[in-house]
Amino acid sequence: MNLACEEAENPRPNMEETKRQIIDLGNGSEVVYIPRFLSSDESWNFFNYLNKEIPWTRPTIRVFGRSCLQPRDTCYVASPGLPELTYSGYKPHAYSWDDFPLLQDILEAVNKAFPDCSYNSLLLNRYKGGEDYVGWHADDEKLYGPTPEIASVSFGCDRDFLLKKKPSKAPKDKRVEDAPPTKRLKKNDQSNQQSFMLKHGSLLLMRGYTQRDWLHSVPKRVKAGTTRINLTFRRVVR
Ligand SMILES: O=C(O)CCC(=O)C(=O)O
User: Fold this and answer.
1) What distance in angstroms lies between residue 174's CA and the mean position of ligand 1's atoms?
2) What digits encode the pLDDT tens for the residues 108-144?
3) Burial class (CB in 10 A: 0-12, 13-18, 19+), 65
4) DSSP per residue over 155-187, as a string?
5) Does domain 15-168+190-234 have CATH number 2.60.120.590?
């Protein structure tokens, strides 16, 4: 294969793609996005390993008082001695980092990029196609503390990642509907929404008050035909 073909299949990242993009969401919330955190080749190695070796499950969860099958596969890894994680009425089994040596390599890369975070747990998600998704939510469980720094690394199919501001809890006389028309925020006001295309090998970090003030989701995308694996590194504070 000549060099031109190799580069076409495996283009070198440009400087912009390896750089950090910092997006200030306002009021102490911030997102950092690194499109090419890991190279394409090493990311495919991680994808193949994770797809095959992780004991994926698709649990039954409770949403708005109803039981339903979680619309994606999941697995949980945590350091010993941490309090149990519970979300949507589901308590995942905590596997050990020692069970999955390649996960430790990814953890090391994330800890090197964000040395202050000292991650000690990881929630893995696998979206088998465009019908799999995660609905609007915030990772605001108490065990992550008031300002969690959540690092999300993506492999495989590119998918949209959306952020929208939580509805404000202003008293009734301060509600948007009561404001003069010029002061009302339009539904699609850009300052209340952000979207990212999470690429193969990318890292997105949410920090500050992002979990307190914002919701995030990976919506269904019927045309997204192939599998995506996402790892969210978190620090459980005791
Ligand atoms: O798959 C993603 O990019 C997001 C996953 C997520 O929102 C979560 O694990 O809380």
Assistant:
1) 33
2) 999 999 999 999 999 999 999 999 999 999 999 999 9
3) exposed
4) EES-EEEEEEEPPP---GGGSGGGS-GGGSPPT
5) yes
Distance 134 CA to ligand 1 centre (A): 7
Whether 218 lines ligand 1, by a CB cut-off of 6 Å, is yes
What one-letter code names the amino acid at 35?
P
CB atoms within 10 A of CB 27: 11
Q: pLDDT (tens digit, 9 = 90+) per residue, 144-156?
A: 999 999 999 999 9
Cα–chain-centroid distance for residue 25? Answer: 16
For the chain, the structural domain boundaries read 15-168+190-234
Question: Is the predicted pLDDT of residue 161 greater than 90, yes or no?
Answer: yes
Direct distance between the N- and C-terminal alpha carbons of the chain, in angstroms, rounded to an integer? 54
Atom of ligand 1 nearest to the CA of 127: 1
Cut 0.85: pTM above it: yes
Indicate the pairing of strand 94-95 with strand 73-78.
parallel
Q: Verify whether ligand 1 is closer than 6 Å to residue 229 (CB atom).
A: no
Residue whose Cα lies nearest atom 1 of ligand 1: it is 230
Residue whose CA is closest, atom 10 of ligand 1?
139
Of the listed ranges 44-48, 146-150, 159-163, 165-169, the least confidently predicted one is: 165-169
Q: Ligand 1 pocket: which of 122, 162, 232 to mutate (most atoms <8 Å of CB)?
A: 232
What residue owns the CA closest to ligand 1's atom 2? Answer: 230
